[in-house]
Amino acid sequence: MRKRLTKNIPIWFLFVTIVVFILLCINFVEMNTRINMLAMVILSIANTFRLWKNERQLAMIFLLLSVLCTFFLIKSLVLY
Hints:
single chain, DUF3953 domain-containing protein, transmembrane helix, membrane, mainly alpha
C-alpha cells in the first residue's frame, strides 16, 4: 500500500515537503508569521512544478497563491 501512495509523488517533492514540515515545526516554537509564509511559498512553488503537466489549472492556482504569499512576505519584511 505504501508503494502505491508514493508512486506518483517524486522524491524531490518529498524532500521539499520535509523541509516545509521542519519550517512549520520551527514556527510552532517561535510563532513567526514570516516563517509560515516562507514555508507556504516553497510548498506552493513545488506543488506547481509537480502538477504542471497533468493539472494545469490547479498548478496556476498554486502559482498565484505562491505569488500572493511572496508579496505578503516581502511586505512584512519591509515593514519590520
